[in-house]
Amino acid sequence: MSWHPRQLGQQTGRTFVVTGANSGIGFEAARDLVGRGAHVVLAVRDTTKGETAAARLPGPGSTSVVELDLSDLDKVAECVKRLVDSHDNLSALICNAGIMGGPYLFTPQGFERQMGTNHLGHAALIAGLWPLLHTSAARVVLIASNEARRGLLSPRTTREELFNPVPYNGQQVYSNTKQANLLFAQELHRRCERAGSPVISVAVHPGAASTNLFARQLERAGRVSLARVTKMVTKVILPSAASGARATLRAVDDATPSGTFVGPARFGQLRGPPEFLDVYPSASDPATAARIWELTEQALGRPLPF
Ligand SMILES: NC(=O)c1ccc[n+]([C@@H]2O[C@H](COP(=O)([O-])OP(=O)(O)OC[C@H]3O[C@@H](n4cnc5c(N)ncnc54)[C@H](OP(=O)(O)O)[C@@H]3O)[C@@H](O)[C@H]2O)c1
């Protein structure tokens, strides 16, 4: 029988951190969790947008907003400090925020912006929060994509190919970031298992959902009219952001084991109820995962958990 969000049950007394919770899939996941009584921390790069989103989450749970710019490792560290200072227990960290495509831009630390945001920023957040995640026996949920199938990362990937690819193909880099999310979730699961850590690592692909993701890349490229049309078209042809959030909700269900990859399986994995899926061949090679882990540690200049 298909999994339905009603199976998640009440979440009163639990705290969830959701990155990029001001819009799209992250907002819908937050809405559902707050509706079940949870406290949701909206970790957002624009706190005004975050407060506006929080005001649209009526309860019975509660919300707070924390500033988080994943594209800047210094800002990630500031966010970690705020979260650690204000929480002594987390049920889950949902690494949802993401960007797709657009021109070749760099983070303040000099990494290509998509990889710097989607993968590296989240890796830094997980590493910074690790003691809290570990003592809380928390869930770490990484939102990948079925685009991860097209990722080209391998055990031979160089630091330049991962973080400063030339020539630049924005769509390919997006696929690589989502492959990195999926690889990272698998590797984290394996390392937790080996170390006997209670942390649970789950990867998600939301299928296709009508969000700002598609129009944003056009806006960034200065194609404002096309962005406007894209917004209208995606609203008509794609499933809602709420249906995109269902896989995230299944990922935080206590019945979902560590190492699982959750997502819709129908219509080329674009829609349908969230199911437990086989990890794509592009992300099932432990040697590739270990390589991305190693390059990530080098880029962060600090060891990741274990
Ligand atoms: N929509 C789909 O069909 C689809 C399919 C596969 C995977 N996904 C994945 O689903 C996740 C959510 O995306 P979405 O579709 O819901 O798109 P969205 O509506 O554009 O949401 C993306 C969120 O990420 C935030 N964000 C972007 N850059 C950030 C940064 N540097 N620091 C912190 N937050 C940042 C955005 O904040 P601002 O509002 O401030 O920009 C926004 O809240 C992404 O990881 C995406 O790759 C989506």
Can you describe what's shown?
By secondary structure, the chain is α/β, with parallel strands linked by helices. It has one domain: 3-Layer(aba) Sandwich (Rossmann fold), CATH 3.40.50. Helices cover 45% and strands 14% of the residues. It is built from 11 helices and 8 strands. Helix 3 runs parallel beside helix 4. The longest helix has 26 residues. It is globular, with a radius of gyration of 18 Å. The mean pLDDT is 95. Bound molecules: NADP nicotinamide-adenine-dinucleotide phosphate.
**Mind summarizing the main beta sheet?**
8 strands, mixed
The helix-and-strand class reads alpha/beta
Ligands present: NADP nicotinamide-adenine-dinucleotide phosphate
Low-pLDDT regions: none
Per CATH, the architecture is 3-Layer(aba) Sandwich
Based on CA atoms alone, the radius of gyration comes out at 18 Å
CATH class: Alpha Beta
Strand content: 5-15%
Largest sheet strand order: 3-2-1-4-5-6-7-8
CATH level 4 superfamily: NAD(P)-binding Rossmann-like Domain
Approximate shape: globular
Structure characteristics:
single chain; 306 residues; alpha/beta; Rossmann fold; eight-stranded mixed beta sheet; 11 helices; 8 strands; binds NADP nicotinamide-adenine-dinucleotide phosphate
